[in-house]
Amino acid sequence: MVPILRLLIPLLFLYSCEQKNIGVIHWSTHFHHLSKEKKYADSLGEKTPWMVRYFDVVWENGEATPTAVAHLPKNLSIHSSAIYIQRQVVENTSKAELPTLSKKIISMIQQMETISHSNSKELLVDFDWGKKTKSKYFELISILKKSFPTKVVSTTIRLSQFANPKVYGVPPSSKGLLMMYQTGSLNQPDRPLLWEKSEVQTYLKEKSYPLSLDVAIPTFSWSRIQRKMPMKNKTRGSLIFPSYSNDLENDKDFKQIQPNQFICTKAHFFHGFFLLPGDRVIPEKVAENDLKWAIEEANSISRNAGTVYLYLIEEASNGAYPAKWFR
Fold first, then answer.
1. Facing residues of 239 across strands?
2. How far apart are the C-alpha atoms of 310 and 327, rounded to whole Å?
3. Are residues 117 and 201 in the same domain?
4. In a 3-state reduction of DSSP, which class is residue 38?
5. What digits encode the pLDDT tens for the residues 277-327?
6. What distance in Å separates the CA atoms of residue 279 and residue 267, rounded to the nearest whole number?
7. Residue 259 contacts by C-beta under 8 Å, 6 or more apart in sequence?
């Protein structure tokens, strides 16, 4: 008789390989639909980690200023507190002023967590650094790590930064969050902006990165608005969240010209945007098969040790992205 343990070991191995540590990202400043979002998050698995955007830091009146501050609920266990830093903040802050900026960020987080009785284990800093800002931004991360020893400091990593660490450098954070979306540019109106699998694949040729990584995949949609500027012979792009694709199909002031493209036929407001005749509106969403492929890639990149975050739970919990896709 074959010992039962010998039979179980391969099964246990297969089961462990299939496990996915799925988390959710909440980016709104309000929590109007928290009960629905919590129910969705709970359906993904036990103790689903939450990443919550706390506030933005923008350059206003000659100084770095926290804005878009979230009203944190008292009944939510937050694993990671996220902040977004506007590019102008780092550009306009001297190296000598970085410790002051760090103190301002830490003080704001501590105030918010005291009021909401939260205590996140991680701080995620979202900033798209480049050649001009890399040195100061990396120093800011180093200061935050030393000044905030109670939290793991993580940084967002764009696909281009992941693929070219020698060019962009590697931030001195404890870990990173790879943002596996936004493969195009608003300046490239004929190419998908949110997601193009073939483009993602070109960035992921090398699966290794000097930092351990979590990965964020796009469980949201948007619509791109393209307006031709006759004076400059250029196209100006804007974004609407979410895509409102059903509204586009049923609005008499739009004409569908391609399976996934609409033209505005009459000047009117559309979800807060004033559209002109001739404006093109292109809804974009990631397909189920592509998301499942993204999760497998994310597990490979994180070596099955990191968390795959669904960005955003606000839209995922509305039924557009069933939880069964990710289990």
1. 224
2. 12
3. yes
4. helix
5. 999 999 999 999 999 999 999 999 988 789 999 999 999 988 889 999 997
6. 9
7. none
